[in-house]
Amino acid sequence: MTEKNMAQQNNNKRKxxxxxxxxxxxxxxRKSFLQALASSEVVLVVGxxxxxxxxxxxxxxxxxxxxxxxxxxxxxxxxISVAERVCxxxxxxxxxxxxxxxxxxxxxxxxxxxxxxxxxVLLREAxxxxxxxxxxxxxxxxxxxxxxxxDIVLGVVKRALTNRRGSLKxxxxxxxxxxxxxxxxxxxxxxxxxxxxxxxxPIDIFYIKTPVEDYVEAAVVACLQIHFEESFPxxxxxxxxxxxxxxxxxRMIKERFDNYCSYLEKNFLPCSENKHTTLYHPLRVYxxxxxxxxxxxxxxxxxxxxxxxxxxxxxxxxxxxxTIPGIKYVVDCGFSxxxxxxxxxxxxxxxxxxxxxxxxxxxxxxxGRECPGKCFRLYTKDDFDKxxxxxxxxxxxxxxxxxxxxxxxxxxxxxxxxxxxxxxRTESFQYALEVLLSIGALDSSMKLNAIGKQMAFFxxxxxxxxxxxxxxxxxxxxxxxxxxxxxxxESVFQLSSQIRESAFQAxxxxxxxxxxxxxxxxxxxxxxxxxxxxxxxxxxEHYLNYRxxxxxxxxxxxxxxxxxxxxxxxxxxxxLYEEESEQDRLGRCLVAGFFRQxxxxxxxxxxxxxxEPLQVDIHPSSVLHRRLSSKEEGYLIYHELIxxxxxxxRTVMRVKEEWLLQHGGNCFQLES
DNA sequence: GAGCACTGC
Length: 672
Fold this sequence. Notes:
The chain is of the alpha/beta class. The protein has 25 helices and 22 strands. Strand 12 (283-288), helix 11 (294-301) and strand 13 (309-314) form a beta-alpha-beta unit.
């Protein structure tokens, strides 16, 4: 028999094993899952939220003798809460047989056989163990969300399957799956597909008859209509796109509801409490978005015991991240803010764009978790049909510098070759390689060098990693650790229009004339000097975001530990620039990581980026905004470039020309 | 003088 024939026969054998098991009730699912697992290398499980796939299937695998199982989740909270639930179901202590690992929190031990992890954690493990050899079974959950990390995990897992034929099995789980895509992605393996029945209650979906111009107005009307016409109890969840929309909708609902109530009371109702409550129930409005304080978020989630009806106005944080009890009605505006691909490199732009059908289903599903519900879509059925079925995979619109470094650290010399569900444009990878080369992570043959390996070791952006490594050489790593930590977190300055004056006054003492980097460092170092139990109060007094600072502190501790593990030899350190101030040395380190993001100050404070021919402005939130004198010359570096009404640079600092010359990766030379 | 959807190591 020829080789070709043998290959063909093997292929046929695989095809025959492939099976499709449709809509299994839960009691059948158990048997079928174990059969599928026994006969295939890859199992795709499709099932809505609540079908028990995440909690039940890994336990079944445990019961039939798999001894090292991992289940990945895109989000921390999910990994933690699922692990806790499974432990409760089995009556075992968290961290013994079953545990979880998320950043800053490892609840596993040597006896742990089933671990729930975020996919970022698994990718980090893959750097030291690219074939994931410590696991015999890997579950990848929420694959339909197509997050950057999940897509990369799927690529790495497929590679491990190929390298470890026979000793590894994979289960991909999702709510609604592009089955064909996943089937062809895993076509070289024995594959089973399992569909499990969800436990969602039926949801009636209503469309608007004619398109609306202003969906915020439409959402307000819909919300009030539901309140007055639909049965009580049952809370309302309204999906809008951002803080501004949510706040104005909240104002409008409150206003109109109050007006209507006083109109009713004046004209129809005697002032009797009883009659009052039988004719209409009170309505309370709660905003919900990520930037809110945890206290305010909790208020929106607190059950109201049917004393009034809640209307929660949320961003897509309520789509996946936060589950709100008591929701019976969903209003969906059909839009969300999404990152859009930009022709310009390293430029973020958010735009309000139509959601996908999958997202619309997800939003509607929020109405049927506890009882039959209703979903009111503020768009026509025609418009729904025109929506794309699946969301744009994140990998197609993301910056790949970090991911490329990680893949190379796993030993892939050519990350282009990793098989992925959707391949990013070649330019994205090429750009990533170009960046890595220029900041010194690659040698001239484009292979990862010692510095690059070190950079991948830290959970930081490659540019920050580069700055951190430079700071070891220049003997200022302790302050750089703090700077890296605070630069890795979201904004610490809490903006609110009412308290602007007093907030600016409170921030004044932190401000550094060099720019935002040292201002932030000043804030963080002051925060660290405050006793722990006084920190929350201190943040309140200074209008600072406690959550961000606490996260920065966690990162700071993690980075310090990692740095200690590394034990850099003294040959790594130099005595260069010893006579300079620490600030100057820190500046040099930042330039070593971020010189690609440098800007020349031209006449009249016109700013031009040096790597892309682009004129930019300093964002009004920067301490250097309007602080450059009209005759000032020189250079700046920035941490972020964002496109809103025009290109803005955010988190900006002044740098010296000689720093660019000496730490700019040989990209600069003096004009003759 | 403008405005930051959401995750993650």
